[in-house]
Structures are given as structure tokens and as C-alpha cells.
Specification:
Blueprint lengths: L1 E10 L3 E4 H4 L7 H8 L3 E4 L6 H16 L8 E5 L11 H7 L7 E4 L5 H14 L5 E8 L9 H8 L7 H9 L1 H4 L5 E10 L5 E9 L7 E2 L13 H5 L6 E2 L1 H23 L8 E4 L4 H11 L10 H4 L6 H11 L8 E8 L3 E8 L2
Parallel strand pairs: 4-5, 4-6, 11-12
Antiparallel strand pairs: 1-7, 2-3, 6-7, 8-13, 9-10, 12-13
Helix pairs in contact: 3-4, 10-11
Length: 353
């Protein structure tokens, strides 16, 4: 028996925002952004487009690609750090929007590692006979988190407009992280088959709570009463705070360790991996992973230049593009790997049938 990926799909917003566009609303340059992050452009949804809506679109595309009807799906797993509302999560909305039946659905909050955790959960669910078909989707609308005023958003959409000095200064204060992110969604369909030809070989999930504050959102939560205050919003305590150097070191070491551990569990040599589908957080991190693994860009590809960091969606979007460009060949060993907020990391080793 094997659990194989039989289809994939994505939802990419139409609105393209380049580094040149961002340079009009903050003190930065296209070269500054691309050199430090690898991002050259990203996509943002229209106002009012939710994370669940992107997820529904990606799930529908993946089901169509797989030739699987909605009523064949036995379990749905959604991963996001940007749910439509504080509670509940998006899984129920995605289930309804995708036309799935009365099945178990899961909401995962492992941030950048959410898709890895979702693949692991789907694999275990299929292994135990809980379902024959599983769908895993990662989706994000990060534009909702960006601390920009309406004036700034209008200026992004219309190059004839400019922002006030106060907005320019505020946007600049948050540029270290705000230039990184984009919106998007990606999904895969897994099916349990009566064959040992391919499928998920091994997975490893690791969390180190000691690193939980490497990147976190300090405001809005049950640690306070009430969970959000006017001061939180005025001080923008609801947006991410991150330790860039600490994240770089932990991300590179954690992802490489996860690749090695997943390979060991599968009984394969890491050097035999054909493709590493790594989380697209920063091109510098990807370069560090390549150096440590001894792989080139052809084995650790990236698409962060075109999409930015879409958190839980980066892995399925990249994998979908690799599949459609025939970069994932039968017999290939593919390792999905990620590190993210909460100091979650993990890897899933997959043998393409």
C-alpha cells in the first residue's frame, strides 16, 4: 500500500506588486529588497478576498487535476496563519466551498511548516484506513497583516499617487519583514493505492519551544484581557516581530537536520534526493541550505522571486510548478522541508510513482 500525490492546484491572485512599487511607499530600493530576500514581486488579493476563498480555488484545481470528485474526499486538512476570522479556522469554510461531504476536517496553525504537518497527518490518516483520499491545502492572505494605511494601498495601485511623510516613515519602520510576504494558496490530493510503487516514505516533525519568539506576534491573544485593545492596534502589536539573524541560523540548521532525519528513517542516502522542495522564506536561507546539503539550485529550486513568502502555501505552490514543468519525474526522491514560527520544523520524503 502507498499514499501517492495524484493531483495539485494553486490559486494565485492577479494583483502583482513589484519591488519598484514598494519603493514608492517606503525608503527602500528594488536592489535592497532582492539582495536581502530574493523577492522581486509578490501577489496580493483584492480587498475582501479571504484565505478560505483562495483555499477553495486551490482545492478545486487540485481535485480537477487529480480527476477526483469532491464526494470521494475522505479528509481535508487546511494550514494557515491568516484565517478569515479569529475563530473558527478556515477548514469548515473550505469544506463547504469545495463541495466536500460531511467528513473530518482539520485546521493547522504551524505557520510556515503547516503544509509539512498537513502531509504527515494525511499520510497517517490514510495509513490507518481513516480515508482513501485526502486533501491538504496551505493558504495565506498576508496582505491583511501588512500595517499600511489605505493611502499606502491606493498609492501601490496608482503610481500617480504618493504617501504622506508620516506614512512613508511608518512603512519604512516595518520594511524588514513587510517586503517578504505575498498571498496565495496551493493544494495536493493524496490517494491510498494497492501498490508499493512510490508514495510517502518517511516524515519527521520537530518543535523547539525555546525558539518560539524568533518570529511572533506579541499582541492579540488570550494572554491579555481583553485579547485585543485599542493600544495594540495603535502600536501595531498585531503584526510580526522577528529576529532575522536568529531565524536564518535556526532555519538552515533545522531544515538540513530534518532532511537528514527523514532520509535516515527511510533508509536512503540524502545525496540520492533528486529535489528538495524547501520553504520559500528567503533566498539567503535557501542558499544556506544548498551549501550545507551540497546541492545546487537545480536540486533546491526556488520561486520566491515571483511570489514572496506565502508561508503555508509555499511548498504546494512550488511543488505544483515543478510537477507541471515535468521536473518531478517517476522514481524521483522528493523531500518537502520547512521551518517556521513557533520553531516548528519538519520534512517529508516522497518517492514519485
Amino acid at each position: 500500500m502507498s499514499n501517492i500525490i495524484v493531483g495539485s492546484g494553486v490559486a494565485i491572485p492577479d494583483n502583482l506588486v513589484s519591488n519598484h512599487d514598494l519603493a514608492r511607499i517606503m525608503d527602500t530600493s528594488p536592489e535592497w529588497i532582492s539582495t536581502r530576500t530574493g523577492v522581486e514581486e509578490r501577489r496580493f488579493v483584492d480587498p475582501g478576498v479571504s484565505t478560505s476563498r483562495l483555499a477553495v480555488e486551490a482545492v478545486g484545481a487540485a481535485l480537477q487535476d487529480a480527476g477526483v470528485a469532491p464526494d470521494e474526499v475522505g479528509v481535508l486538512i487546511t494550514a494557515t496563519m491568516t484565517p478569515d476570522v479569529y475563530a473558527p479556522g478556515i477548514a469548515g469554510s473550505v469544506q463547504k466551498g469545495a463541495g466536500l461531504g460531511p467528513i473530518p476536517v482539520f485546521d493547522l496553525r504551524q505557520q510556515c511548516t503547516g503544509f509539512i504537518y498537513g502531509l504527515d497527518l494525511a499520510h497517517r490518516y490514510l495509513e490507518t484506513g481513516g480515508a482513501e483520499v485526502a486533501v491538504v491545502v496551505g493558504a495565506e492572505v498576508h496582505s491583511a497583516l501588512l500595517p499600511w494605511s489605505d493611502e499606502s494601498w491606493r498609492a501601490l495601485a496608482d503610481p500617480r499617487l504618493s504617501v504622506s511623510p508620516a506614512d512613508f516613515e511608518w512603512n519604512t519602520a516595518h520594511r524588514s519583514w513587510s517586503v517578504l510576504f505575498g498571498d496565495g494558496a496551493g493544494a495536493v490530493v493524496l490517494r491510498r493505492i494497492d501498490s508499493s510503487d512510490g508514495g510517502i516514505l518517511a516524515s519527521v516533525l520537530i518543535t523547539d519551544g525555546e525558539g518560539a519568539e524568533l518570529i511572533w506576534i506579541p499582541g492579540v491573544g488570550s494572554i491579555k484581557r481583553p485579547y485585543v485593545t485599542r493600544a495594540d492596534l495603535d502600536e501595531h502589536a498585531h503584526v510580526p516581530v522577528m529576529d532575522g539573524p536568529g531565524l536564518y541560523r535556526r532555519a538552515v540548521s533545522s531544515m538540513c537536520d530534518a532532511v537528514a532525519e527523514a532520509s535516515a528513517r527511510a533508509g536512503v542516502d540524502p545525496k540520492d534526493i533528486d529535489l528538495v522542495v524547501a520553504h520559500q522564506a528567503n533566498e539567503r536561507i535557501l542558499d544556506g541550505v544548498r551549501r550545507k546539503l551540497g546541492f545546487g539550485v537545480e536540486r533546491v529550486p526556488s520561486n520566491i522571486a515571483r511570489y514572496g513568502n506565502t508561508t503555508a502555501a509555499t511548498l504546494p505552490i512550488l511543488f505544483h510548478e515543478l510537477r507541471k514543468s515535468e521536473r518531478v519525474q517517476p522514481g524521483y526522491l522528493v523531500c518537502f522541508v520547512a521551518f517556521g514560527a513557533g520553531a516548528h520544523s519538519g520534512a517529508v520524503l516522497y518517492h514519485a510513482p
